[in-house]
Fold these 4 entries.
Entry 1:
Amino acid sequence: MAVEVVRLDDNGRVYLPASIRRRLRSREFYIEEKDGRIILIPVREKLMKYRGIFRGENLTGEEIDEITEKETEKLLRGEL
């Protein structure tokens, strides 16, 4: 696990060090606050095609994948 110190700029932005950006290979992140900590979770390409579909829902990426997979299976079986 890499630990780096970063600062907020005057506009509240945080710049991720290049070494971390290269390892994560993502330009878009989910952000969570949990127990006083900030957690950044890379958005995977697989999820990007579903962006906005579940707007307003408080679902994790894994939950979205599971729901989408089940609905796709129903569609392919002709149940929808």
Entry 2:
Amino acid sequence: MRIRAFCDFYNEAYRPLQLVIKCEPGELDWSKTLYISLPSPLEPLEAEDYGDERGVSVLMDDLVSQADDDSLLGILLPQIYGRHGETFELLIVQMDDVEEILQLDRYY
């Protein structure tokens, strides 16, 4: 699994806009919640790097924080699978949603 950030200019600043999680086919268990910790610093991703992998937008309703460790971001994979009926290699999460779920401060 590889976690990167798509960055671009927003409000006159260069900032991460999307968290992109790339997985190998069969790597994820779509019947369980996926918990990840964000690497620091986030590796940048260019638009050309998205490739031909099948991706899905992760909605705010698909995100949770873990009560025991508030630095872990949870992605409700069963909910995504139930909505689409298939698996994906790219999970695309809006950084605003990540910041809200993990209650992160913005430093930009």
Entry 3:
Amino acid sequence: MPRLRIHVQIEGLLSVHAVRAVWTALGAVPGVLTAEVSMKGAILEADGPVDRQQLEEALAAAGVTVTGLTVEKGSLPVL
């Protein structure tokens, strides 16, 4: 299955602690291979479609809210 890049807009990333909590929470979401998190949001690499409800629940546990989700069309090369 092709890898996907998913951009997640997040509300509530107000500190470095929140960024770290989101990064940790994303590691528990099935299908997420890597996550780059900043105070602007997150970019995920996934091995297929990610369940939005699981993503939202994981981030809610980290104290933030998903405000948008965009999946890049196409696939990433496997190196």
Entry 4:
Amino acid sequence: MDGRGQDEVEARVVGAVMLFAQDTVVAALRVMQQYGVRQLPVVDEEHGELLGEITDEQLRWMWTVAPLASMAEILSVLQEGSPEDTGAQVLELAPLVRIPGAHNRWLH
């Protein structure tokens, strides 16, 4: 499929697939991989209100510092600063277990 055709397919999928505010980084990455998209809207589960959009690049970065952070937590701090600042702010909201020598990385 050429680039234009892929963009059209992705636009249709994004219109039908969305993330909810309580979805985690891990869940969001799984949805993006399943549907082959790089960006998805995040909506309020109760009212269907658009809260924002998140990209796979943002999620991959957040996965390294807070894989269980929710979309609501991430969107609330994304509006305030750079991705590096966002990671620090999300860690304050959804801290990982602090293990000496872990360098604030998710252990698996």
